[in-house]
Automatic annotation (TrEMBL):
Keyword flag 4Fe-4S: yes
Binding site for S-adenosyl-L-methionine: R189
Gene name of the record: hydE
Protein name: [FeFe] hydrogenase H-cluster radical SAM maturase HydE
Cited SMART domains: BATS, Elp3
Cofactor(s) required, per the database record: [4Fe-4S] cluster; [2Fe-2S] cluster
NCBIfam families per UniProt: rSAM_HydE
């Protein structure tokens, strides 16, 4: 048996590898893109997922409530220096309306995601969360709106928010610097994640696969960081260049590498909630299905009003920018059925709570 397969077997058994082993495994992957090793790990990822979650796939209704952002991350189409980006904010009524529609369709988690837009003050978001939880008490609210201070996160949690998604993007200091301007720091990002955990959120971190400058060493650091943080969720999708950013001409992350890492994360954190992301569905027509077959167990259909979807362009060619939520959900249900999976209707909390 190859050294790489032995590591994967041991990962399944012990749920961890040493940083040097991770690095050598990723280096081997980057050098060979070994398809046989990929199926070996994806097969295991799928099996481990089924041991906890069976054939259930959880759905989260994504509401992209603002495309304004005060940050300037080099990879992202919403960065403030992108003068081409069309900016919008949804008002409270529209957001509640999206939840209402989503609720009727069977969604029991709403994910409010946006750029870092301080028009949405701590109070405004707190009030919004309170209203959503008041109207839909059986639903979970996930927030994903970037970095705020401890007290703000705490206030939102006290208002009823259940979960928070904040990808760490990379656990490697030099790589973080390559992806972000000086106003942002890995130190603060990690601090935010630790605060979220401390407050009691089901917390999600994550990375873009194949982001510019990502090496085997960065990925090894990511795995070690994720093991240490022990997140309830991990958001992981391919980097996709956006034409109006400094990374317009960079290569996108690949389907294969994303599946490889999804499966490895499943083996390391068997109970984690792991979305097959929209970005994965964007780089390959069956990306999300393949993600589910490699260990992912969540999908996040878009509940934003269709007229704003074309304006929330983190990256190019994002899928389903025109589709209505209901129609997209029907097609998703069919797609999941075709691979033997069933969409769950409960909130789908982390099984480790
Ligand atoms: N502003 C918040 C949430 C919105 S961005 C935040 O930054 O946390 C959500 C995620 O989109 C980011 O964490 C990043 O990982 C991803 N993203 C941004 N630009 C991308 C790109 N070009 N390709 C793939 N994913 C991207
Ligand atoms: Fe803003 Fe998030 Fe995009 Fe960075 S990744 S520019 S914080 S929306």
């Amino acid at each position: 048996m190859s050294r790489e397969k032995e590591w994967i077997d041991r990962l399944e058994e012990e749920k961890e590898l040493k940083q040097e082993e991770w690095e050598a495994l990723f280096q081997y992957w980057l050098d060979h893109e070994d398809k046989e090793l990929l199926s070996y790990v994806c097969e295991k990822g799928k099996r481990v997922k089924e041991e906890t979650f069976g054939n259930k796939v959880y759905i989260r209704g994504l509401i992209e409530f603002t495309s304004y952002c005060k940050n300037d991350c080099y990879y992202c189409g919403l960065r403030k220096s992108n003068k081409e980006a069309e900016r919008y904010r949804l008002d409270e009524e529209t957001i509640l309306d999206c939840c209402e529609k989503g609720y009727e369709l069977g969604f029991r988690t709403f994910v409010l995601q946006g750029g870092e837009d301080f028009f949405f003050t701590a109070d405004r978001i707190g009030e919004l969360v309170r209203k959503i939880k008041g109207k839909f008490p059986d639903c979970a609210v996930t927030l994903s709106e970037g970095e705020r201070d401890f007290d703000t996160y705490k206030a939102w949690f006290d208002a009823g928010a259940d979960r928070y998604l904040l990808r760490h993007e990379t656990a490697d200091e030099a790589h973080y610097r390559l992806l972000h301007p000086d106003s942002l720091s890995l130190e603060n990002r990690k601090e935010c994640l630790r605060n979220l955990k401390k407050i009691g959120y089901q917390t999600g971190c994550g990375i873009m696969v194949g982001s510019p400058g990502q090496t085997a060493r960065c990925l090894a650091e990511d795995m070690v960081f994720m093991k240490e943080l022990h997140p309830e969720m991990v958001g992981l999708g391919p980097f996709i260049p956006q034409h109006a950013t400094p990374f317009a001409d960079q290569k996108p992350g690949t389907l294969e590498e994303t599946l490889f890492i999804l499966a490895l994360v499943r083996l390391m954190l068997p109970k984690v909630l792991l979305p097959a992301t929209t970005a994965l569905g964007t780089i390959h027509p069956e990306g999300r299905e393949l993600g589910i077959l490699s260990g992912a167990n969540v999908v996040m259909p878009n509940l934003s009003p269709s007229d704003v979807r074309k304006k929330y362009l983190l990256y190019d060619n994002k899928i389903a920018t025109g589709a209505e939520a209901a129609e997209a959900l029907d097609s998703l249900r069919e797609r999941m059925k075709a691979i033997g999976c069933e969409i769950a209707v409960d909130r789908g909390d982390s099984p480790e709570l």
